[in-house]
Amino acid sequence: MVHGQGGFKFQNWAKTYGSSPELYFQPTSVEEIREILDMARQRDKRVKVVGGGHSPSDIACTDDFMIQMGKMNRVLKVDKEKQQVTVEGGIFLSDLNIELSKHGLALANLGAVSEVAAAGVIGTGTHNTGIKHGILPTQVVALTLLTASGEILECSESINADIFQAARLHLGCLGVVLTVTFQCVPQFHLHEVAFPSTLTEVLDHLNDHLQRSQYFRFLWFPHSENVSVIYQDPTNKSPSSSASWWWDYAVGYYLLEFLLWISTFVPSLVCWINRFFFWLLFSSRVENIAISYKIFNYECRFKQHVQDWAIPIEKTKEALLELKAALENNPKMVAHYPVEVRFARGDEIWLSPCFQRDSCYMNIIMYRPYGKNVPRLNYWLTYEGIMKKHGGRPHWAKAHSCTRKDLEKMYPAFPKFCSIREKLDPTGMFLNTYLEKVFY
């Protein structure tokens, strides 16, 4: 008999959202998950499955039953011939990266954080950058799903194809993802080069930058023209890094937290802080070579509020200049650095922000120095307005204000997804407050 823990308090990594589930479970087998679902059905409770808890929204929160999949974290199969790996849904990508490395394999693309579970990564549409690369769910070639009724469904392009296109970005509302099969590539090293530029230069030569580097992105420092361009490309060179740069980076961020805390009393300091830290950390050229996952991943040092929308790639310049103008025209509206601008290839996944279009992701951030919230509502609403105007779609893991009415306009395949969801979970066992706003 599986036992749930009472009195558990769940908080996401940024401590911006939390909940107190009635019972908290850490199952070790499919049979135990089935028992939990049976118990939920008998007691008329909802169930929310969580992984690493990194999503900066309430997508993982519930007051009913919570299943944390951390004990179902095995690598089940490595197929070297096909270069594919099958894992349990609860495995953290940080562990998977190391296991793949032992077999001479790697994931072709990764997000900034790997302390996240495989099923959660695909469930929210995690992405990185690279116009030749899709969001992380595009690397999924098969998965198994345990539905509300206790049935296990095998899903791929050839088996349950419709459910597969829904489940590759599932929002945690179709069932419990038991296993995921990823398409891998041979292990590789990346050469990272970061160098200063200006917003005008980058936007005027955007296509050149996209062609020049496989994993190109840039960081814009609001209230200035300053930009840090980052190229990451496969290399055969030996690993190397600048130890002094990493030391400066760490010390700089402790100073940043203190100065941002001061700025909560004097908001006008933010524009000078952004410029100072560009000069301190990003105004010189830096190079680094390491195994791919060590370059893709970087440490998120401070708690933060984040928004991240995908717009059609051709709207990048117009939207970013509009955001810049909005900040210039509203001196009381402050924005922390950076605005991170990344790119992704279009795909056919129904709820992918990149559905049927190459996209630009524009990520904005407001730090919480020493846990203190900084006023952000005007900045948030202004940014959302610009994103909506330019055909944007929100990153599912991040907080957003969209309702079903908005999402139906944004996603041509939204009705198809809803139909699958209602078929697999007719009683709404896997819904929560976040998902009710999405579907009702």
How does this model look, in words?
This protein is α+β, with helices and mostly antiparallel strands and 440 residues long. It folds into 3 domains: 10-68, Uridine Diphospho-n-acetylenolpyruvylglucosamine Reductase, domain 2 (2-Layer Sandwich); 75-186, Uridine Diphospho-n-acetylenolpyruvylglucosamine Reductase, domain 3; 189-394, FAD-linked oxidases, C-terminal domain (Vanillyl-alcohol Oxidase, Chain A, domain 3). It is 32% helix and 24% strand. The chain has 14 helices and 20 strands. The chain has helices spanning 30-43, 93-102, 118-123, 161-167, 199-204, 206-212, 243-263, 269-282, 292-296, 316-329, 377-389, 404-410, 414-424, 433-439; strands at residues 10-11, 18-19, 23-25, 47-50, 65-68, 75-79, 84-88, 105-106, 140-146, 152-156, 176-183, 185-186, 189-198, 217-220, 226-235, 286-291, 304-312, 339-344, 359-367, 393-394. An 8-stranded antiparallel sheet has the order 16-13-15-14-18-19-17-20, with helices on both faces. The chain has a 5-stranded antiparallel sheet with strand order 6-7-11-9-10. Strand 9 (140-146) and strand 10 (152-156) form a beta hairpin. Helix 7 (243-263) packs antiparallel against helix 8 and helix 10 packs antiparallel against helix 11. The longest helix is centred in the middle third of the chain and has 21 residues, at 243-263. It is globular, with a radius of gyration of 22 Å. The two termini are 35 Å apart. The relative contact order is 0.14. Mean pLDDT is 93; it is low at 243-247.
